[in-house]
Write a structure and sequence with these properties.
Elements lengths: L11 H15 L14 H5 L18 H28 L2 H17 L6 H6 L4 H13 L5 H12 L4 H7 L12 H38 L1
Helix pairs in contact: 1-3, 1-4, 3-6, 6-7, 7-9, 8-9
Length: about 220
């Protein structure tokens, strides 16, 4: 057992469910017009219908706590769908498959276990799904408190780089001197650097605590 994940034999169901999650959360079919676009997580989440032209149930011009409450309601479908997909995939062995597949990448890259691989992929396109998966991993003992801190520092800076770069950064893309793919790659590299700075800080703090403990024992 590693990080709370029982190392059972991984069946084809585990690999198939893992591949489905990677395809769904990666956003590779988000802009596709082919039938398999239905596999994309954002497509499955969908969007609210319009009450008036350009206006959904949140309305326009809202402020304060009431607007915040309505915004929170919009997160519920994303969180519920993400958790449902993860629970079903986990029961089929996807978490064990993710641990085996992503451990050689994530352990040296950021010091986190391979079980965080699905959340790592999902955070590229959905900060909400990545956050709720990370919370679930910690509460089920799959990652430690320090690993969660490192992983959160990766996710929080430049969150959902694909979705936010294409969406929020759309007005700047036409004048960018770099292609979209290079821009997203730079964001991800900087996110990883930031996570490793936090990793080094936590390691130095642990060494300091151990040093103080050894000194008091002496």
């Amino acid at each position: 057992m590693e990080n709370g994940v029982k190392q059972d034999k991984i069946t084809w169901k585990g690999w198939a469910s893992l591949i489905f999650l990677i395809v769904s959360f990666s956003g590779i079919f988000m802009k596709s017009e082919a039938p398999w676009k239905a596999l994309d997580f954002q497509v499955m989440v969908g969007k609210f219908g319009l009450i008036a032209p350009g206006v959904n149930f949140m309305g326009q011009g809202g402020t304060g706590a009431q607007q915040g409450f309505l915004f929170a309601l919009t997160l519920i479908p994303t969180v519920m769908l993400a958790l449902g997909l993860i629970q079903v995939a986990e029961s089929m062995g996807a978490l064990s498959a993710a641990n085996k597949l992503f451990r050689p990448l994530l352990r040296p890259l950021m010091g986190i276990p391979g079980t965080a691989g699905i959340a790592f992929i999902s955070s590229i396109t959905s900060s909400d799904a990545g956050a709720v998966m990370t919370k679930d991993l910690y509460e089920n003992g799959h990652i430690t408190d320090d690993e969660r801190t490192i992983f959160v520092s990766y996710q929080y800076a430049g969150s959902a780089p694909v979705t936010n770069t294409v969406g929020t950064g759309a007005p700047l893309l036409p004048i960018s001197v770099l292609p979209l793919g290079v821009v997203i790659l730079i964001i991800i590299v900087v996110k990883i650097i930031g996570a490793n700075l936090v990793r080094l800080y936590l390691r130095s703090q642990s060494a300091k605590v151990l040093g103080e403990g050894s000194g008091s024992d002496g």
